[in-house]
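Q: Given only this backbone (228 positions), what sequence would you predict?
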């Protein structure tokens, strides 16, 4: 089947113009979308709709996004939850992840970034929905934990695999060391940021990326995967 056919996304935000923009964009991408303007409506829609992905705004009057997240998790639904927050604070991210959120996006965000987050959540939580997926010169088979680059199978450690997968799925987006550590190693990782450099160097060696044209270093910002 089409990779997006039958994939259901619930959007929850108290700002109608944001809901309309995201609904149009995601529907145009081929997803089945339902919306809710508040937390109570979101809970009711989620019960009937059974979405694969729920995108929840944190700051809503009455029942906020954190409470909706807890209610969805309490219901036992297999929904993957992405939180939208206007606050770039560690406490908010930790709280969301602690109560059961799977990812978060900080406002303002680009639509392409949200799409990348959605794709990553679907690949991680619902791999049975997909066959082998192609990203430029990369082919990813998450069920077999196998990466192919330009027709060549890469011999990767589990951490190298997860790091390359994160970067490739978010291709074109600059990822800081802090975000990479958070997403790949986990927010409770207590080691040094330099571990990212070590793994990036190893990936470049295995890709034959001597000129750093595949995994680019964006000075002062982080790393970005580009497809030629």
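A: Predicted residues:
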């Amino acid at each position: 089947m089409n990779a997006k056919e039958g994939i259901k996304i619930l959007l929850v935000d108290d700002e109608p113009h944001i809901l309309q923009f995201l609904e149009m964009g995601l529907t145009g991408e081929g997803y089945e979308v339902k919306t809710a303007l508040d937390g109570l409506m979101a809970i009711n829609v989620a019960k009937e709709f059974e979405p694969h992905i729920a995108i929840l705004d944190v700051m809503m009057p009455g029942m906020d996004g954190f409470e909706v997240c807890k209610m969805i998790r309490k219901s036992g639904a297999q929904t993957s939850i992405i939180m939208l927050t206007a606050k770039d604070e560690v406490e908010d991210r930790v709280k969301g992840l602690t109560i059961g959120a799977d990812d978060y996006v900080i406002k303002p965000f680009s639509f392409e970034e949200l799409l990348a987050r959605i794709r990553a959540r679907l690949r991680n939580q619902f791999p049975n929905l997909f066959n082998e997926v192609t990203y430029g010169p990369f082919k990813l088979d998450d069920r077999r934990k196998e990466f192919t680059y330009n027709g060549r199978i890469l011999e990767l450690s589990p951490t190298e695999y997860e790091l390359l997968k994160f970067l490739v799925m978010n291709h074109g987006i600059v990822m800081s060391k802090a975000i990479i550590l958070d997403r790949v190693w986990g927010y409770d990782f207590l080691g040094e940021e330099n571990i990212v450099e070590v793994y990036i160097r190893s990936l470049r060696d295995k890709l034959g990326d001597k000129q750093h044209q595949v995994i680019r270093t964006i000075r002062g910002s982080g790393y970005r995967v580009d497809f030629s």
